[in-house]
Amino acid sequence: MCFLFSGVFWGIVLVLFGLSIIVKVAFNIHFPFFRILVALIIIYFGLRVLMGGTCIRTHRNTVLFNESHVTATDAKNDYNILFGKGTIDLTSPELAAKSSRVRVNTVFGSGTIKINPDVPTLIEINSAFAGSRLPDGNAIAFGKYVYKNKSYGDTVKNLKVDASVVFGSLDIIEK
User: Fold this and answer.
1) Could you tell me the residue range of the domain that residue 148 belongs to?
2) Residue 84: how many CA atoms within 13 Å on its side-chain side?
């Protein structure tokens, strides 16, 4: 699919279009250039889908059209689940060692966030047309909710999670 957006592809298309005009004028042979071009693009797209290729480049913290498990080791990162299913594991010791802030976005997907019950954690979750389930038994579909686990305190090092869910589902579990 990336080949369709490259300069090489469009250069070849322009050269072939020019050749088809020359052949039409010089030899009076009609060559249905655009019909053949559209057919070749559809065939190319179908082969790319069959082979599992994509040209969408994603960061290692993004789950896109896929199912994946991501372990968070660095604070101040964004983790995204887009049109897929993913698990974001926030139980690593690196996150517990210092105050950390993590953002998790779920759009048209299904996500799970794993948190450590021994690490003071505050989760601010925003939902729109979504199903969000929290460890305290609450579930929200619209609006904002703040969850604090039993170890949370304002004076100690803690983990803050900003979670947004749109047209998807998000489960937060303590592991």
Assistant:
1) 62-174
2) 18
Spatial CA neighbour of 119 closest among 135, 104, 108, 105: 135
Cα atoms found within 13 Å of the Cα of residue 125, Cβ hemisphere only: 31
Counts for the chain of helices (H) and strands (E), in that order:
3, 12
- Cα distance between residue 68 and residue 85, in whole Å: 7
This prediction's pTM: 0.65
Query: pLDDT digit string (tens) for 101-138?
Result: 889 999 989 999 999 888 888 899 999 988 899 998 89
Say yes or no: 68 and 154 in one domain: yes
Q: Give the sign of the dihedral formed by CA 37, CA 38, CA 41, CA 43.
A: negative
Extract the residue ranges of the chain whose pLDDT is less than 50.
1
